[in-house]
Design a protein that fits this description.
The structure holds two protein chains of two kinds. In chain A, the strands form eleven sheets. Chain A has a 22-stranded antiparallel β-barrel. The N terminus of chain A is likely disordered. In chain A, 59% of the residues are buried. Among the domains of chain A are: 96 residues, Immunoglobulin-like; 148 residues, Ferric Hydroxamate Uptake Protein, Chain A, domain 1 (Beta Complex), CATH 2.170.130; 84 residues, no CATH class. Chain A is mainly β. By secondary structure, chain B is mainly alpha-helical. Chain B is built from 19 helices and nine strands. Chain B is globular and about 75 Å long. The chains are: A mainly beta, B mainly alpha. Chains A and B meet through strand 22, strand 23, strand 25, strand 26 and strand 27 of A and helix 1, strand 1, helix 2, helix 5 and helix 19 of B. Strand 31 of chain A pairs antiparallel with strand 1 of chain B, so a sheet runs across the interface.
Chain lengths: 1042, 493
């Protein structure tokens, strides 16, 4: 109310002053010096007068200045007041946020708390860091933005969920994916759902442009209120709300192009024919490959990359309306995104709507809702690049690497060049190929994954007496996923079935009820914020699916056409399960005189998936903090004038991980068929003692602000010690336990490290500002105990290749390969080192044995398991980001670098690229050994050799340094002059160009060191196996305010 | 004004309270839901129908595509010399064909696991059935126990022949398999991860013990409805004969086959009605369960072998994928199969495509539902013939040999030299096995039990050198996963 009166006064003053003749009109724009965003509602007054105004929704103001007045004063809550000399009629002013600790709140768990009083470890990512990025889901945009958060985009398949880790890998058999809360609703993530070849990520159903803030909660103090779900960290997302003032209308849109980044260089037809025939000669075989010429006498030289890859075109549009009155605030938005990948036929389309409404029914009662509806559709070929697909015969990532470059995709008459079994035609070669013609798959196979995702909540809040609030919230997340598959009858995965269609429909339903009673009271120097609550939620998962095979007629090309055979069973996506969750929680935050801080939370969780006697678990955490900067002795010391903020804090707590299967504790029998008779058979060995997995988290931190907010830093040490790991404990296969595992609370592991988040406002001037954010996290992960006898657990890539092991004393999912010692210069044979340290060389055509010692005597064959050794850690030891933001007049420039390192990558793709079957090879193969005495890293090529270069047994020649720094994002924006755009009825208009994945500096030999063929797998991270590359994207965008 | 406000207040409060109560009370069993698509163990033996389904489940374990339902048969063929690799695909047995597997090759790991999964299903079933004997009548229970024991013997026999030294090399003194005979159902129960290998001889003893008991418990005849898809007395006897043959215990072979073969032609079993089908083509019609069948594993469009496990997919180029074709230097070279003048019906199982020949014994198109033959009567005759020949009874040996040959080629006469001398007759019988049982998974075990090297073979995708009986890759390595989890497990040398 006061503001309104003031405003009236200002307006009246303005009216009065207009009576004077000698005034001039000054206009200007006020923005945040940090991120360049417009600041609405800033008070602008003329020094020495009572004349003033406020900036509008786009940060613009206009004021009449009497003659002789030269200075404006700008005031805004949360920003340092600034005086500006009136040097022209058009002013651009950048306000510097005061040390953000003083003003910011942390949205933590079920409440908000002033950052200054906060003793947990949480990091905020703002809207500006997420919006307008050419991504499908907001999590992809978090890379390098926050200390302790590691995001790895596995490859360039659209809407492929990134590997998302907070403070390391916090489980072995369960998920290490964090809990995602959107407007207080725990939502489904990709760890809950089933995808097909068209990738699906439920987080892609959230419009990144609707997000106001993302808080990543990391330590026990921050997360303990989420109890059993908190082990992997919690991501709390708040969507935008309307703000007081006039209605704001914003349009944001971009168009972009998308290209494959850094494809391996392959042999051309001539090189291929020469090399493969040389390999055949070396194997004592007749030549099998020859150049084919077309009708015009030109050599056939097929670039299979061009068959599979393209330049994709994408566009994205968001429109929102928001505003607020004293009683009601609203934010409604819609978004449309249509993105094309560089992989042909891979696309992502999303239509999304959101309505956020808050209304004060009365002085003490508020109700509100956040409601979003999203409809997204991913389409794709079988990219062979999603988890489990690395060896798919029809996987499009591998096909261009292996298909013969001397064979054309089409016959001269335009028909597909294929054999009767759908493999690529022979051309002039005489050796059969067992891979399908990629062109046919792109043309005829279809995969789609459509999500319909409704996330909504309704809440009511009732202030019973001052400071005592009761809040209840009922929310739902309903996610329907429809996956369709059609595989053609002539080539590829559907060929042997004479056409295959598989449609599945999944329904995921979750309802959540939370009641909370909160009491906030200030008793002089004692400030208390405490609450208790009750939450329960119930999730059901239902899938139905049917597979049809054997097309009745080649005319049909979808599921609905006629087929001869139908199958619908557990293998075709039929499932039904449910789980329930019941919790009681309490929290207390106490501060004394703003100096001494104390916080504690407790939660008791019951979960249906655990054994009958162990359903409930108790979790909790506590923390203490000391705001040294508030102490009088400090304020009076010299340091007091430098530090306006200095806080020490520490926390400890116990949280849990809930990712266990819905019926994991039970022993179960499944039913199937024996011919046409029904079967029942033992299918799951349960564990009647299965209980919560617990994670003990310790955090010690210091945070400080220097020079009035110019420099802010936070440094934390963390130690997550995980005990009673729910491990799918490996059972000797000879026990015959289904799946050879039993879920058990065995094993332990830790993640430790330091995190630094450092922000410096290097230059803050009206026309020029430069802000740097640097964040880095270190991670030391070690497995300290496993199941019975500490048996190793192997990580298997796509069910076929074991190149990862989890072993006590080592990092989770370490790279496990047979060591090699180069190539024997005498004979060009690959030298392996066996378990006894002996050198053993391999000759594909050796007789009587392929394996010999260097002296030529027969040696036992190298064995992947027995001779395998750990060749390095697959998890980075450090990672982070360096983000620089510059503004100059109306220009803004953002340069984001992400980096990561200390790890090795198993480059299995290189094994593919050097395999000596008929497969094409990378050009590095030209360094092959040919002459005695020659020293090289590539063995003699011998036709059929799938051992020397690592296809059959992973070896250390394909283990490479995974460290990198990546120029992830560069964006240059320009704000058009207000006067100019005002004429068009627009209050502000910014245009920008943005480039993603511009360059990478790395020692890694593969396409991109930011890779994960096994997605979010804990047991087999850091594997690059036959995956498409990442994408390089250029976008042009607009931000318009009306 | 005031009353309206008050009223509003009350409504608001009521709405909030209602929401709260609703949420709390609507799900009483929130934390104790029951699975709807799986049967909880305490109810797994509740009804006679369910127990019967469990028996079918034992067969389906053996019928896994990774085991007897596909790959076990395929591996036994492609490790021999009858087939040449056409598609150099690591997933479809390239390294197996190349004699180049190691302990973490998928074939090695998966077959081991599938075999033991089938065995444990039997062990778990036997315990469960014994605890629920009141649910079925005694005769039925007996039959089920017999079937379970038979399947356990079949599985152990497959595994011991793959992962251990052939019995005949040293009378079974070599390390065999861990003998798992207890129900393995949980972490702390009867089973433990660590169990040492019994000797090959001990494994054979257990196999024979199971078969002897099964013989007494199984029904004398096939049930009409299920035919050869379920074991009966003759099935157990036939397997016993095969086991004794692998031990070179020819007298015992004859003891067993005597229960199945009449003393005079036309040969048939005295009980159970087992005999040769008049035409072998009938036997490979895709879903044969008749009198020649002692055990065929059935498939249906709803119960298919699974991707890249199907016999027709491997061995035919249409409807299959042409993974392996016949080696012209293998048994294909025999005049019966490739001779221009041959009138042998079995020549009809070979189809020429381009320049190469495919075996089309299995030919049902996708989803490749050809029944997998495990035991059939012609093998029984050949087992007996060989045992007769090796024990000097050339007349009976020749008679049985001719019974098999003449079924497919009635006019054929063996060269007297081939059947007149004991050594030659044995050789002729072994050759006849290769012709008759081609593609049915016998070649490797016949090489093993006769102490032969694995022959060299060569094709366009490369060559595979001979493997001497002393070479480390003569038998497969033990599964690497087993070696890592079972601390008492001893690797193969």
């Amino acid at each position: 109310m006061n503001k309104r009166i003031l405003y009236l006064v200002w307006v009246m003053a303005l009216v009065c002053t207009q009576a004077y003749a000698q005034t001039r009109k000054i206009t200007g724009t006020v923005k945040d010096a940090g991120d360049g965003s417009a600041l609405p509602g800033v008070s602008v007054s003329i020094k020495g007068t009572s004349i003033g105004t406020q900036t509008d929704g786009n940060g613009n103001f206009s004021i009449n200045v009497p003659a002789g007045k030269q200075i404006l004063t700008l005031n805004f809550i949360g920003y340092t007041s600034q005086t500006v000399a009136i040097t022209s009629n058009k002013l651009n002013v950048a306000l510097v946020a005061t040390a953000s600790q003083l003003s910011e709140v942390v949205i933590s768990g079920y409440s908000k708390i002033s950052k200054k009083d906060y003793t947990g470890s949480a990091v905020k990512v703002t809207a500006a860091q997420i919006a307008d990025k050419p991504v499908q889901s907001f999590d992809q945009a978090l890379a390098g933005q926050a200390a302790g958060v590691n995001i790895i985009q596995p490859n360039g398949v659209l809407n492929n969920p990134p590997v998302f880790r907070i403070r390391g890998f916090n489980s072995i058999s369960l998920s290490s994916y964090p809990l995602i809360i959107i407007d207080n609703v725990p939502v489904f993530t990709s760890t809950n759902t089933v995808a097909n070849s068209a990738s699906s990520n439920p987080l892609g159903d959230i419009n990144p442009n609707d997000i106001e803030s993302v808080f990543v909660l990391k330590d026990a103090s921050a997360t303990a209120i989420y109890g059993s779900r908190a082990a992997n960290g919690v991501v709390v997302i708040t969507t935008k709300k309307g703000k007081l003032g006039k209605t704001q209308v914003n349009y944001d849109g971009w168009v972009g192009i998308n290209k494959a980044f850094n494809l391996p260089k392959l042999l051309n037809a001539d090189q291929y024919v020469e090399l493969k025939n040389e390999a055949r000669a070396n194997a004592g075989l007749a030549p099998g490959f020859a150049i084919q010429k077309d009708a015009d006498g030109n050599e056939i030289n097929t670039d299979w990359y061009k068959v599979v890859y393209q330049t994709g075109l994408s566009h994205n549009h968001n429109l929102n309306f928001s505003g607020a009155t004293e009683k009601t605030s609203y934010f409604v938005s819609t978004g449309y995104s249509n993105q094309e990948s560089f992989i042909k036929t891979n696309s992502f389309e999303r239509k999304i709507f959101r309505g956020n409404l808050d209304h004060h029914l009365s002085k003490s009662i508020t109700i509100g809702t956040n409601f979003s509806y999203s409809n997204s559709l991913g389409k794709g070929p079988n990219s062979g690049s999603l988890p489990g697909q690395a060896y798919n015969t029809g996987g499009l990532a591998r096909l261009p690497l292996v298909l013969n470059p001397n064979v054309a995709p089409r016959n001269p008459d335009g028909s597909y060049n294929i054999t009767s079994t759908g493999t690529l035609g022979l051309g002039a070669n005489t050796i059969a190929n067992n891979y399908p013609n990629a062109l046919v798959l792109l043309d005829l196979d279809k995969y789609t994954s459509g999500n319909t995702n409704v996330i909504g909540d309704l809440y009511g809040e009732w202030e019973l007496v001052k400071g005592l609030k009761f809040r209840t919230q009922y929310s739902i997340n309903k996610l329907n996923i429809a996956n369709t598959t059609f595989q053609n009858p002539i080539a590829g995965d559907g060929q042997s079935s004479n056409g295959l269609a598989l449609n599945t429909f999944q329904e995921y339903n979750r309802r959540d009820l939370t009641n909370k009673l909160e009491y906030i009271v200030d008793l002089g120097k004692n400030n208390i914020d405490t609450y208790i609550g009750y939450e329960e939620y119930h999730t059901t998962n239902v899938g139905t699916g049917t597979q049809r095979t054997n097309l009745a007629d080649s005319y049909f090309n979808n599921f609905q056409g006629n087929f001869l055979n139908v199958l619908s069973d557990a293998t075709t996506g039929n499932f039904q399960s449910e789980n329930g969750f019941r919790s009681y929680f309490a929290n207390l935050n106490y501060s004394y005189d703003k100096k001494y801080l104390l916080s504690g939370s407790f939660r008791r969780d019951g979960f249906s998936g655990l054994s009958a006697n162990n359903k409930y678990g108790n979790f909790g955490g506590g923390s203490v903090g000391w705001n040294i900067a508030e102490e009088d002795f400090f304020k009076q010391s010299r340091l007091g004038s430098i530090f306006e903020d200095l806080k020490l804090k520490g926390s400890y707590g116990v949280v849990g991980n809930v990712g266990v299967g819905d019926f994991a504790s039970l022993s179960l029998y499944n039913s199937g068929l024996y011919g046409s008779a029904g079967t029942v058979y033992f299918n799951q060995a349960g564990n009647s003692n299965l209980k919560w997995e617990t994670s003990k988290k310790t955090d010690i931190g210091i945070s400080f602000g220097l020079f009035k907010g110019r420099i802010q830093a936070e440094l934390d040490y963390y130690n997550n010690s995980i005990n009673n790991l729910i491990l799918n404990a490996p059972q000797s296969p000879s026990r015959g336990i289904p799946g050879n595992t039993i879920a058990a609370n065995v094993g332990s592991m830790y993640n430790r490290g330091f995190e630094l988040n450092f922000t410096s406002r290097n230059i803050v001037k009206n026309n020029f500002s430069w802000t740097t954010n640097f964040n880095i996290s270190t991670l030391s992960n070690k497995v300290t105990a496993l199941a019975q006898g500490n048996s190793d657990i192997y990580g298997v890539t796509s069910g076929l290749e074991t190149a990862s092991v989890t072993r006590v004393g080592y990092t989770l999912g370490s790279i496990f390969v047979v060591p090699v010692d180069g190539v024997n210069p005498a004979n060009g044979q690959r030298i392996f080192i066996n378990r006894f340290g002996q050198k053993v060389q391999y000759n594909q055509v050796g007789t009587p044995s392929k394996w010999t010692y260097l002296d030529g005597t027969v040696a036992p064959a190298i064995d992947g398991t027995l001779d395998g050794r750990i060749a390095g850690r697959a998890i980075p030891t450090y990672y982070g980001g360096l983000n620089n933001t510059f503004t100059y007049k109306s220009f803004d420039l953002n340069i984001g670098i992400t980096f990561s390192g200390g790890n090795k990558i198993y480059n299995g793709t290189q094994a593919t690229l050097r395999d000596q079957r008929f497969w094409n090879n990378e050009t590095g193969i030209l360094r092959r050994w040919t002459t005695p005495g020659q020293v090289t890293d590539i063995p003699k090529v011998v036709y059929g050799d799938n051992y020397s270069n690592g296809s059959a047994i992973p070896n250390s020649s394909n283990v490479q340094n995974g460290s990198y720094a990546k120029l992830k994002n560069v964006a240059l924006g320009y704000k058009l002059p207000t006067r100019l755009v005002n004429r068009a009825g627009i209050s502000s208009l910014r245009v920008y160009v943005q480039a993603t994945n511009l360059a990478v500096v790395t020692g890694y030999k593969g396409s991109d060191p930011e890779v994960s063929s096994n997605g979010n797998s804990n047991l087999a991270p850091g594997i690059d196996r036959n995956t498409v590359p990442s994408s390089r994207i250029f976008t042009f965008g607009l931000n318009v305010g009306f | 004004m005031i009353t309206i406000k008050k009223y509003k207040y009350t409504v608001n409060a009521a709405v909030l309270a209602l929401t709260m109560v609703m949420g709390n009370s609507c799900k009483k069993d929130l934390l104790t839901p029951s699975p709807t698509t799986s049967i909880i163990d305490s109810k797994a033996f509740d009804t006679p129908a369910r127990i019967l389904s469990q028996v079918n489940g034992l067969y389906s374990g053996v019928k896994s595509g990774q085991f007897y339902g596909g790959r076990y048969v395929i591996y036994n063929e492609i490790r021999g010399e009858e087939f040449i690799v056409n598609k150099p695909n690591g997933v479809t047995g390239l390294d197996t064909w190349n004699q180049n597997v190691n302990s973490n090759t998928n074939e090695v790991v998966n077959l081991w696991s599938a075999g033991y999964t089938a065995i444990n299903r039997v062990n778990v079933f036997l315990v469960g059935l014994n605890a629920n004997l009141s649910k079925v009548d005694a005769a039925t229970a007996n039959q089920y126990i017999g079937e379970a024991e038979f399947l356990r013997a079949l599985s152990y026999f497959a595994l011991v022949q793959t992962y251990a030294k052939p019995y005949v090399f040293d009378g079974g003194a070599s390390p065999g398999l861990p003998l798992r005979l207890l129900a393995e159902t949980d972490l702390t129960g009867a089973g433990k991860n660590d169990l040492a290998r019994s000797t090959v001889a001990q494994v054979y003893t257990q196999i024979l013990k199971d078969l002897d008991d099964a013989e007494t418990k199984l029904p004398a005849t096939q049930a009409t409805a299920t035919g050869a898809t379920r074991a009966f007395k003759n099935t157990a006897i036939a397997l016993k004969a095969r086991v004794y043959l692998a031990q070179a215990n020819y007298a015992k072979v004859l003891t067993e086959t005597a229960k199945l073969i009449s003393t005079t032609a036309p040969y048939q079993s005295p009980t159970g009605g087992s005999k040769l089908e008049s035409s072998i083509v009938t036997v490979f019609n895709g879903s044969y369960t008749g009198a020649e069948g002692l055990l065929f594993l059935p498939f249906s469009t709803s119960d298919a072998p699974g991707t890249q496990n199907q016999l027709a997919y491997y061995f035919t180029s249409s409807p299959g994928n042409g993974e392996y074709y016949l080696n012209t230097a293998g048994i294909y070279a025999n005049a019966a199969l490739s001779g221009a003048a041959s009138t042998d019906a079995r020549k009809g199982f070979i189809t020429k495509v381009g320049t190469v020949n495919y075996l089309t014994k299995y030919k049902t198109p996708s989803p490749f539902t050809d029944y997998v033959p495990v035991l059939r009567y012609s093998e029984v005759l050949l087992n007996a013939a060989e045992a007769y020949a090796r024990t000097g009874d050339l007349a009976n040996a020749s008679a049985l040999l001719n019974a098999v040959r003449h079924r497919s080629d009635p006019a054929f006469t063996f060269d007297p030299a081939d059947i007149g001398l004991q050594a030659n007759l044995i050789s002729t019988i072994l050759t006849e096995r290769r012709i008759e049982l081609l593609g049915e998974g016998f070649r490797l075990t016949d090489l093993f039990r006769t102490g032969q090297a694995l022959p060299a073979k060569s094709g366009p995708q490369g060559s595979s050198p001979a493997v001497a009986v002393t070479a480390s890759n003569y038998i497969w390595p033990i599964s690497g996963v087993e070696l890592q989890t079972n601390k008492l497990m001893q690797p193969n040398p």
